[in-house]
Amino acid sequence: MGGGVAIRVVPNKATRAINLLRTVQYSHPPSCPCHANPGHHHNHASPTTPAPAVSRFAQRISSPQHSRRGYATPNNDPSQLKEYAFEMAASAIRFGPGATQEVGMDLANMRAKRVAVVTDETVDKLDAMSQVREALAREGIEYRVFNKTRVEPKDYSIKEAIEWAKPYDPDVFLAVGGGSVIDTAKLMNLYVCYPDADFMDFVNAPLGKGRPIERKLHPLIAIPTTSGTGSETTGTAIFDLASRKAKTGIAHRNLKPTLGICDPLNTRTMPAAVKASSGLDVLCHSLESWTAIPFNERVPRPANPILRPAYQGANPISDIFSLNALRSTVKYLPRAVRDPEDMEAQSEMLLAATLAGVGFGNAGVHLCHGMSYPISGQNPGKYKHAGYEVSAPIIPHGVSVAVTAPAVFRFTAASNPDRHLAAAEAFGVDISNVKRESAGEVLAEALENFLQELGDQPRGLKALGFGRADIDELVEGTIPQQRVLMLAPGLAKELEAEREQLKGLFEDSLEY
């Protein structure tokens, strides 16, 4: 190459995404001291350093009247002080076909003595677990397998898993499976490290006490076998509280895995129905985090950084992950569902799930997820989604979030029409001549068309067995989900007004 001409290699999409994850991980590692030490404060930058992206958030046009949101302002009532900062936290991520075989070396590097391997009965028979067993055996790692994890876990199934783990007293957890498995492993880890805690101590308020996790937990490695929840990156674990017929969970940064190993070879065995449902979860993670209220509109401002919630509201860093995940999902999910041999689509969907996990894991979700919890928890018609090999009735999580999406984004669009139009554009809509006041209708129509073309999706709550007589109970099951509802743009703060809005959203979701 005479003349010394430099050749620039343009990184592909996966490389760019991994570089971005690496940057986030370097700047805010999982063991960030501000979450383990309430006395620690970041001093990464001068307060005079310009922050154009944050400034844009502070000046977001957020209503049809073009009223501007300003910076957080002084207030004598601490409960009404607006947030002024956001944090970025994510698990370390390793992405690549065949990466599962490295997990034995990871555990050896951690000097693991007793490893609790958490999976379910289906995954336990698949190649992912065979790879794990071989990897652990090569390094001489002591381990035991818990394979009784329930799909869409209940509080009692999680308690059974915790009781299995306590006598073994593992020093490392390894989760191999979908979001249900990874979430169960997170809570096994939590209650092994807090053996005397009552189960409801850490459950999100108002259903539980919402106690913060102040103690560092054991290392947790997560190997996802589905492309949906992004649980390998987040500090959130979701389950059904059976006695209340409602979904809830536990959320704190200290819950998030130490490492997520995302191996596209592990998602090849997903049935088409599971791929579709998992992908719809990615779709709604992306859309909801992209359209959540801005971080600097959230109240109250935490009195101590350890109290800052994982779900903070839309912010400039989460936006990058959320919008990219949305575009990839629209492009690759239909391909992944239709052709199990399309490895590009399978790989890109796993990457999209991880990117969305970083996005919503820091920005949060809102109405689709808040409303989905009673939908999947109540299931009055004993609906069982086709393609799921389970014995009990089930409304898969992705199905329950997507079924209300057209109504939800028709409702939230007035809060920020430009963001909703950008989302519609990701679905291939030409928005050049669309009026801002039509943003909600345009995005809702794009969602309806996408769901219909994906195939085998219920066209509203009626198809899941719900009727108008069920709406009041659905509303009452949604209201306790304040952790996500507080991020919903346009939702009333006064309880009766909120109840009426939710009722209207469920009515609009009965059929489309």
Automatic annotation (TrEMBL):
Q: What class of enzyme is it?
A: oxidoreductase
Name of the molecule in the record:
hydroxyacid-oxoacid transhydrogenase
Localization of this protein: Mitochondrion
Q: What is its main location?
A: mitochondrion
Q: Which GO terms describe its molecular function?
A: alcohol dehydrogenase (NAD+) activity; hydroxyacid-oxoacid transhydrogenase activity; metal ion binding
The UniProt family comment states: Belongs to the iron-containing alcohol dehydrogenase family. Hydroxyacid-oxoacid transhydrogenase subfamily.
Which keywords are on file for this protein? Mitochondrion, Oxidoreductase, Transit peptide
The family database entries (SUPFAM superfamilies) matched by this protein are listed as: Dehydroquinate synthase-like (SSF56796)
